[in-house]
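wait is this the right file?? whatever heres the structure
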């Protein structure tokens, strides 16, 4: 198995040094990517200490915007030519095509992390609270959503995610400990006004259509490193329950950390390809774990970069990922479709997953659409009693019952 050729392709798209970005400024706080449409970079010129903003397409390197700024942080809207800038307590949002300011606001607490949650909402995390701001509504101040849990008090906040309906929210922090980096995620249900803390380094939400369900489900994907040499990947179907679907499922699999030299490695990002039913898990030291969304089974692992991939996102064209490395490379990582199916079937010995992937990839090639067609391959073991609507408490009890992970009540 060790001799099998990795079923992924890795290509460098752009080297940021070639467009004048100094290597020491290719960092997590300066280079942001909220989607595969743009990368926003805050940097200074080699001969000038004036701060600059450069916005470019990560796939072809075309620069959409370049100009001076006094901002200390910048974020591109994931779908529109709109840029948000933070300067201390002030936030301003501009359309860089029309050069028109859309909105501005001021928050009276230090913001330790912020991001576009979707195309409409900017999220702000302070030491004690999480706020949402809708810049499209005139004179609309940031709205308090929930309080940070004390267990995140000494963590560096690295991520804040939401499901498409904004009913499930998750803020993640990292804390250095002896011989490891600990990850903690605070999960919040807006409908139930309930918080839970879980041990997790990376979290992602998605809307995924299981093959044996008539309706798509909201799923939460979680990755963590739990012991010296292994971690876990969870795929958890969240509520509310949809009539006709099977009972919400909670699947997990172990992932093995391969290199003793990288004993401090841990997951830093998760991306879901709903079209292929694949979960991409990226670790700090450049390893990629490809997992099956239906079962959470780890299908393969390979190293895709010798440098830290500190920001990444789904490549909506290829259903792979696009990422930026600490060395200034913008890289794309894609599965070799035929080779990947053969690898899963013959090397990983996961025939059911290979058959599902083959059908999903064939459908995608045929119509280039995003319709996830159900397959008639369900087994009687999947049939369960239809439950009532599930709250966060219900999911917690189910997860504990099957020993997927420990959800510790924080209320």
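ok assuming it is, sequence goes like this
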């Amino acid at each position: 198995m060790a001799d099998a050729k990795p079923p992924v392709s890795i290509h460098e798209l752009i080297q940021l040094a070639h467009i004048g970005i100094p290597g020491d400024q290719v960092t997590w706080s300066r280079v942001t990517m909220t989607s595969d449409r743009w990368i926003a970079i805050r940097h200074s010129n080699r001969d000038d200490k004036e701060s600059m903003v450069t916005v470019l397409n990560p796939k072809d390197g075309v620069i959409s915007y370049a100009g001076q700024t006094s901002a200390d942080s910048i974020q591109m809207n994931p779908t529109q030519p709109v840029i948000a800038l933070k300067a201390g307590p002030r936030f301003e949002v501009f359309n860089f095509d029309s050069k028109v300011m859309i909105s501005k606001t001021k928050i009276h607490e230090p913001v330790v992390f912020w991001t576009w949650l979707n195309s409409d909402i900017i999220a702000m995390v302070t030491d004690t609270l999480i706020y949402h701001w809708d810049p499209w509504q005139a004179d609309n101040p940031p709205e308090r959503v929930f309080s940070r849990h004390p267990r995140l008090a000494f963590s560096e906040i690295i991520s804040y995610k939401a499901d498409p309906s904004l009913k499930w929210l998750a803020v993640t922090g990292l804390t250095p400990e002896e011989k490891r980096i600990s990850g903690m995620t605070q999960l919040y249900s807006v409908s139930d006004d309930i918080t839970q803390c879980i041990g997790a380094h990376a979290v992602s939400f998605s809307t995924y259509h299981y093959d044996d369900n008539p309706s798509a489900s909201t799923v939460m994907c979680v990755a963590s490193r739990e012991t010296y040499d292994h971690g876990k990947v969870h795929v958890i179907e969240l509520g509310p329950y949809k009539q006709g679907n099977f009972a919400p499922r909670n699947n997990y699999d172990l992932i093995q950390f391969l290199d003793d030299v990288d004993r401090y490695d841990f997951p830093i990002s998760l991306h879901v390809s709903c079209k292929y039913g694949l979960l991409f898990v990226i670790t700090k030291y450049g390893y990629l774990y490809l997992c099956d969304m239906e079962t959470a089974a780890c299908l393969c692992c390979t190293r895709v970069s010798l440098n830290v991939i500190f920001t990444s996102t789904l490549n909506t064209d290829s259903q792979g990922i696009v990422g930026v490395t600490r060395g200034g490379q913008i890289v794309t990582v894609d599965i070799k479709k035929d080779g990947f199916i053969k690898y899963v079937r013959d090397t990983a010995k996961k025939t059911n997953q290979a058959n599902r992937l083959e059908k999903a990839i064939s459908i995608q090639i045929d119509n280039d659409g995003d319709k996830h067609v159900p397959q008639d391959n369900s087994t009687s073991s999947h049939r369960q009693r239809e439950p009532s609507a599930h709250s966060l408490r219900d999911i917690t009890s189910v997860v504990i019952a099957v020993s997927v992970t420990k959800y510790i009540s924080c209320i």
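Confidence is low (pLDDT under 50) at residues 369-411. so i think its the right one actually
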